[in-house]
Write a structure and sequence with these properties.
Layout: H1 3-78, H2 80-85, E1 88-91, E2 94-98, H3 99-102, H4 112-132, E3 134-141, H5 157-174, E4 182-188, H6 199-205, E5 207-214
Parallel strand pairs: 3-4
Antiparallel strand pairs: 1-2, 2-5, 3-5
């Protein structure tokens, strides 16, 4: 073999070695790019899913607020006359009546003026509840002064608030509210509307509230309560 042939063989061998070394590098680079592309796609899909969830949650929240606003406006319209009298308040869908309007101090006997006020509330509330298939929760509240120091008829503030809520509930039923649409609840001194440090605040806390609430679905196997 001539020197030229030997040189050619040597050069060709070096070239083959270079190509053989370069090929694995490109293969690794290709795998790396494919991995990066896959990771980018996964991140993009994740971002899109999160954005879709956020949009869905935002739409649901907007719809909820719109329904609450429509509900509030409908309730205000239904109670326009009692609200105008100033003896009834409406706050976040809760109808508030001062305890002094309905009852004498530390008593669960309904005042005549209080009964007359409840009479005016029954017709609009009955229509409102029927249109939305809702119920009316009548809640009794007191101040934080121990009832034992003022009256022996009640064991505590919870019992006084319960008796007042029951009195209002029965009065509403007697004035035409369907018994299936109303129920009583008692909270005693819990959930004060104002500070109990002043007499004015305690007077605000001695109150009865009424709030439309969704009807609860009957529990399977549990008979419905009879009025």
């Amino acid at each position: 073999m001539s020197a030229l042939d030997e040189g050619t063989d040597i050069g060709g061998g070096e070239l083959d070695d270079s190509v053989a070394q370069t090929a694995p590098v490109w293969a690794v680079f290709g795998d790396l790019m494919a991995g990066l592309l896959g990771a980018f796609v996964l991140i993009l899909v994740g971002v899109l899913v999160v954005q879709m969830d956020l949009v869905s949650h935002l739409e649901a929240e907007v719809k909820k607020r719109q329904m609450e606003e429509q509900r509030r406006m409908a309730l205000e319209q239904a109670l326009a006359i009692p609200l105008k009298s100033g003896r009834v308040t409406l706050n976040n869908g809760r109808i508030g009546i001062s305890g002094s309007v309905l009852f004498a101090f530390n008593s669960d006997e309904l005042r005549p003026d209080g009964r007359q006020l409840l009479q005016t509330l029954v017709p609009p509330l009955r229509v409102y509840l029927s249109e939305r298939d809702e119920m009316l929760m009548v809640s009794g509240f007191t101040d934080d002064k121990p009832v034992q120091n003022r009256n022996d008829r009640y064991a505590d503030n919870l019992e006084l608030s319960a008796q007042r809520a029951l009195t209002v509930t029965r009065a509403l039923i007697s004035e035409g509210m369907p018994s299936s649409r109303v129920f009583a609840a008692a909270f005693g001194a819990e959930q004060p509307a104002a500070s109990n440090r002043t007499e004015a605040g305690r007077a605000q806390n001695r109150r009865v509230e009424m709030a439309p609430v969704p009807k609860t679905a009957p529990v399977p196997g549990v008979p419905a309560a009879k009025p």
